[in-house]
Amino acid sequence: MADWLEGFLAMRVHVLIRFGRWDDILDLPFPTDPELYRVTTAMLHYARGVALSATGAVDRAEAEQDDFRAAVRRVPGTRMLFNNTCSDILAIASAMLDGELAYRKGEYDTAFAALERAVALDDSLPYDEPWGWMQPTRHAYGALLLEQGRVEQAEAVYRADLGLDSTLPRPLQHPDNVWALHGFHECLLRTGKTGEAEIVAHRLRQAVALADVPVESSCYCRLETGPEAAVQEAAETGRPATEPARDGPARRQGRYAVSARLDDGLERPHAGEAVPVGRVPMRRLVLLLHSAERG
């Protein structure tokens, strides 16, 4: 029975990672029976590694990575999550954590190679509903590419995720999801593709209107402020640059200090208010992860 059911218990941490709830992750207790809850234990080590890395505790994150690898070795190959083996799912977690840690250590080429590997592993999972790997790998990859100024690469990642080219088959596309639209729109602004940016802005406006929480990046793993496009536009138009508060306690709790407008002047809900994701019930976050995020 554990081979068919235990893997579902590990999915909660994906919701917390998706919305940057680092402290909530670190507060989660480990299962009292790690021999029974082997996937849950491994996935919690993965989540803790991501959370510690994102909050600057790289040494502790590396220790979690060691514990994660040891836990993965204990997961039997018979343990399933619908159509996928938990071992295949945990292989994506391994590549994601490799990329996250290398990135925080400034080893960007190594980090992006690991994230590319995570994307390839994610793409190769047998089709399933809900998806076997819940946090879109391209969203993290694109966000960190943008943070390092690799805008053209990030644009290609987002364009494929949104299904705006023929790179991916339809089951791997996620049309009009707000996370990738936000990143794609920023890429277009930063590369001077203002005509296409205006078209995407309309789709982004619609996606933002349906979002339950403010979205300022395709992944909370993106921590730095000040993309050049927003700063440049602020200087040219007199509108405020639109950057979330990405450091300090508010960031670690998964809160955004939301500006009044997006880069292109789109009105935002909760203008000027720090909106805690914690106000949104966990059940609603899970539904968001299952539907809106995957398109």
UniProtKB/TrEMBL annotation:
Organism: Streptomyces haneummycinicus
UniProt protein name: Tetratricopeptide repeat protein
InterPro entries in UniProt: TPR-like_helical_dom_sf
Organism superkingdom: Bacteria
Region: Disordered, residue numbers: 232-253
Coiled coil segments of this chain: none
Annotated SUPFAM superfamilies: TPR-like (SSF48452)
Entry's transmembrane regions: none
